User: Fold this.
Amino acid sequence: MDYRYLGNSGLKISEITYGNWLTHGSQVENDTARQCVAAALESGITTFDTADAYANTAAETVLGEALASERRESLEIFTKVYWPTGPKGANDSGLSRKHILESINGSLSRLGTDYVDLYQAHRYDHETPLEETMQAFADVVRQGKALYIGVSEWDAEQLRRGSALAKDLGISLISNQPQYSMLWRVIEDEVVPASRELGISQIVWSPVAQGILTGKYLPGQPLPEGSRASDEKGGADAVKRFLRDDVLTAVQDLKPIADEQGLTLAQLAIAWVLANDDVASAIIGASRPEQVRDNVKAAGVKLDADTLARIDETLGSIPETDPRKTESPETRPS
Assistant:
């Protein structure tokens, strides 16, 4: 496993992060979830990402239990705040001071730790003054409950404003967690240049496009049984934007490139995002431990310029590149 610095900080994280969105506490049983975490640890992964909203807090509990016997100083544990949790009352979502300070306490309790390495704003809150949000994050850092602050799916202007306020408050905003893959490149034109300017790294989620880039979905064929696209607990919603025959055909056309590199399609997809120097880590999820062991083999793979160019040529105009697709809800979800 290789390690990369996160933003302009001195914190190093594994270039593969294990994440438990849509799995722990919902799609997979707890025993299997613990086996997946064990496989991640055995594979050299030290960085783990979750959020209070995943499975309405259950995912944090499962991850905390799975990591309980590990040396805390050898791990980087990330969580997030914004989406509704608990009974979903008026103040159970967003980035108000009340919600942030109450949520960090709940997350630490569920994770079984005194601090998280990175506490992230899961989206931008248009209903709360950014000054209030960043002051609350600064207090969380000063209380020793988080070491660093990050965000997820903020656009370039939001990153600039948040970074400036963080600097004024004496804390470090060091990361953004966007969706990024061969098929979803909306951060490239605006978010990445702004982040580079600000010393912010990308920790990218869905590098295999919710499983589309594994090649298991075939054009004109029924959805595989047990796949995320057929899951009614939320997985299907995340996948459906890619379930077009032109997309699925282009993905199949990538297979000769993967074969030449001695990689699976999923490994090629993860190696592709890691070829971007602005990416500190790619988040992988898993419903089985063997998926972790397979996908982690993308760590350390170096794709040359010719291979990257062939991937772009094969996909053509298929990837989504519109920077306006980076957006947060206009009102707090409930």
Q: What stands out?
A: The domain at 3-215+265-303 is CATH 3.20.20.100 (TIM Barrel). The chain has a mean pLDDT of 94.
